[in-house]
Here is the input.
Amino acid sequence: MRKQISIGLAIMPILALMIAGAFSIFVWKAGMFIPLIIGIIVTVLIGLISGIKWLELEQMMVKGVSKALPAIFILLVIGMIVGTWIASGVIPAIIYYGLSFIHPSFFVPAVALVTGIVAVTLGSSFTSIATIGLAFMVIGEGMGFSPGLIAGAVMSGAFFGDKLSPLSDTTNIAPAMVDTDLFSHVRHMLWDTIPAFVISLGLYSLFSIGSNEHITDSKNIDMILSGIEKTFVIHPLLLLLPIFTIFLMIKRLPALPTLLLVSLIGGFLAIIVQGDSITSIINTMTSGFHAESGVKAVDSLLNNGGLVSMLNTVGLLTIATALGGLLEGTGVFKSLIRPIVNKLNSARSLIPTTIFSTLLVAFASGAQFLAIILPARTFVQTYKDLNIDTKNLSRCVEAAGTVGITLVPWGVPAVFAANMLGVSAEQFIPYIFFAMLVPLINIIYGITGWTITKKEYPKKTIEVSESLGGN
Here is the structure.
């Protein structure tokens, strides 16, 4: 017979994961695989102690991983896109024209703004990071900017766009979990997203102005341009592929087949424009692009992509969502927050608690889907009981689960970006201003009551054993 998990036991997996994660990131330099496995082991032991059978625990992990399968397939295709877009000259062309026309005095805010526009239209932060973000890294380093600063601006723009795009998977999941509609959710998010992004652009402008005296002279930029010209055929028509990709996304075609199509088009362009062989393209799709331009800054970022390059992120996502399935299935997360939720009686306490609880899941698991789904399911009835519109809940879980999670060094978004952009998470996290501001603005809204909308929900009889709070 199952026993209810005590708070003392429930906190053990979180502590084990965070302590092991801190040691692994800052001392052992070994990444987050082992800490996540430690978290799984501790959660399984607690489940067994509570009377849950092994087969049930196994099914919980399978269920957790199954939620991530669409994201896993998309990640693998993104690896192929990066490889073929580099081989075809698409990303090198973006870098070439960017270095030629973007002025250093407004470069950093331009990085965030353009990446944000691309992410809104594509509906994918990861795709925008891996394409336009990768191009901006080379351009920024060519101008002499800090790689961490540029990567931070890319992340701010990518997750601004991801948060607001109706095409984004997380933007669709959040309202679905709390019984509200997509477009009400997106409109309500404008209250926190727009102010946070405008402030972020202002901060990035200050960094651009302050960095002017350190900008590398034109000889370094000329060297990069020469390296690109020597390695690729560069033509403005190559930019039609990103435009075509945006068009397909605007038409709301399914993400996976659309991304697969543009990956194949990239391979076809590499054969036609760059003269690559079919064998070379197949190898690029598998293992990434490899060339020697003679310019270190170009080679370090353009020798990238391929399905294999995504395996580290896919492995991390798989283990993280397995842990998430255990945390949800065993009731560990509910046991942790039940005493807090039962005492909530207003938006002033409920909104900050939602933000901090979502961040707790984000830091414990590093998985976006988990950080959205767990708190959304846990708090939805409390919002209804207090007659607070659940679109406030979906906005909160997006603020902390979609955006705030980028501040977690071992989180999937940070690991993906570090892998793609060639910059460690510790270097760019201090510059993701957008991710710091969005949760903070939501907390301010909750305390002041501004933008918090009310809604009358029909009262339902809820069994005491399933209720998580509210009056």
Q: What stands out?
A: The radius of gyration is 23 Å.
